[in-house]
């Protein structure tokens, strides 16, 4: 599977469900669901306790995730970066949601995720 050869629609069909899972598992404080699409590398960077703390702080400060809109898909030699605007229930304005995916063991995995 060559990600760089996929159309934007094909890439979104892969990453949108992954981002939906990130959002819902963050709201539900479900660590196992949250990391299910993570690469082996990124799994080493977030503990269950760290995940819990980030979710609590995010919900307290920003509220729950609301709509997101695609900004752009970036094709790199070994990965794809997808950028969205992300809205929250407690604050106005746009935040940036970024996801980097890559192929790992013949599957697509999240290798970086950030919302800021």
Which features characterize this protein?
single chain; 116 residues; alpha+beta; Nuclear Transport Factor 2, Chain: A; 4-stranded antiparallel beta sheet; 4 helices; 4 strands
Notes on the structure:
The protein has a four-stranded antiparallel β-sheet. It has helices spanning 8-27, 31-34, 40-43, 48-61, and strands at 65-75, 80-88, 95-104, 107-115. The chain is an alpha+beta fold and 116 residues long. It contains four helices and four strands. The chain has one domain: Nuclear Transport Factor 2, Chain: A (Roll), CATH 3.10.450. 36% of the residues lie in helices and 34% in strands.
- The H/E string reads HHHHEEEE
Number of strands: 4
| Shape label | globular
Helix count, DSSP H or I runs of 4 or more residues: 4
Strand order of the largest sheet: 1-2-3-4
- In whole angstroms, the N-to-C terminal distance is 30 Å
Helicity range: 25-40%
β content, as a range? 25-35%
The largest β sheet comes out as: 4 strands, antiparallel
User: How many separate domains?
Assistant: 1
Q: Let me know the average pLDDT.
A: 95
